[in-house]
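Field notebook, page 195. I keep forgetting to write these up properly, so this time I am using the form the group agreed on. The chain and the ligand, 5-O-phosphono-beta-D-ribofuranosylamine, are recorded exactly as supplied. Prediction of the bound pose follows.
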Amino acid sequence: MSKLPIGILISGRGSNMQALVNACAADDYPARVALVISNKADAAGLVWAQAKGIATAVIAHGDFPTRETFDAAMTERLEQAGVKLVCLAGFMRLLTPGFVEHWQNRLINIHPSLLPAFKGLHTHEAALKAGVKEHGCTVHLVTAELDSGPILAQASVPVLEGDTPETLAARVLEQEHRIYPEALKTLIETANRPV
Ligand code: GRF
C-alpha cells in the first residue's frame, strides 16, 4: 500500500513520536515517517529516531530572528522531505498563523487533557487542583488558537486517590500512545487524502 509521508515535530523525550513511528512500522498502517524535526539539539527523541534510521533535522529556533522565519524554515524542510501531514508531539513552540494556515487540515497535535478543559501547560497539576474525577488526552487538528482545533479523538482515565502530577501523567501518557496513532490512521483514511 502507498503510505502518506508524515513529519513529526518534537522538543524533548519524544514518546508520542515513538508511538507514531512504531505504528508506522506495520505494513497496513497508512503513514510513514519521512522526517522528525526538533527545535532542540539535545532532544532525547532525536537519538531514538536516528537509531531507527529515521531522517532527523535540528532547526533551532534561536538561530532565527523571528517566529515567522523559523516556521518558514520548518515548512521548507518538511516539503523538501515530501511531508504531506505534520504531527506535533511535545513540540514546545507556538506556531505562527502562517505555518498553521499552510498546513491547514494537515497539522495535528496531542494534548494531555480532555479539551476544552485545561489548555496550555501543567495540565495534570491543574486537573488535580480542580478536583476532577476524570482526566485524559485529546488529539486535535491545529488551528490558530492554542489547543482549540476540532477534536479527532479523546481518551479518559480516572483520577485516583493519592495521585500526584507524575502518577496521573503516566496514566494519561499510556492513553496518548494508544490514541495518537489511531487518530492519525482514521484521519488519513477518512480525509480526502493528499497525494
Ligand atoms: C505529552 O504529554 C504530550 O501530550 C504533550 O507533551 C508531552 C510530550 O511527551 N503535548 P513526549 O515528548 O511525546 O514523550
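OBSERVATIONS:
- The helical segments are 15-24, 44-51, 67-80, 97-102, 123-130, 165-190.
- Residues 13 and 44 are 5 Å apart (CA to CA).
FOLLOW-UP: compare against the apo run.
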